[in-house]
# Entry
Amino acid sequence: MNKGARRFAILLVSIPTITLAAWRQDSHSHSHGSMSMAGPAWSELMTSMDTMHAGMASVEPSGDSDVDFVKLMLPHHQAAIDMAKTQLLYGKDPQMRRLAQEIITDQQSEIELMKLWLKQHGPTPQKMDRSPDAPNKEH
# Structure
């Protein structure tokens, strides 16, 4: 996927996320009955969003902005995958279904890259304990 298409895909994922979050803020003042009328696709999208927010809220700051960025992006990317899977289940537009499949492929690849990066750069007991008495296991 070229840079322009990738940015467009990210934008397509971001706009609904922001819009849905704003809508949910407003919807708390309305009856929950309208939520049940929206259907299973909407419910699954909202579940993906709620799971993402819970995952992001559970991340404790590490003091390393790179590590924190990756740990926050993992649930964000997983939510994009979950939402794209919902699109594949319920969506009918071929262009949006194709985009959903590309999002799944790209986001899974990026999740694997971030997990690998965390293994290589994330806080480990040796990195966190810098006292002179701490055993050095890097020999």
Q: What stands out?
A: DSSP finds six helices and no strands in the chain.
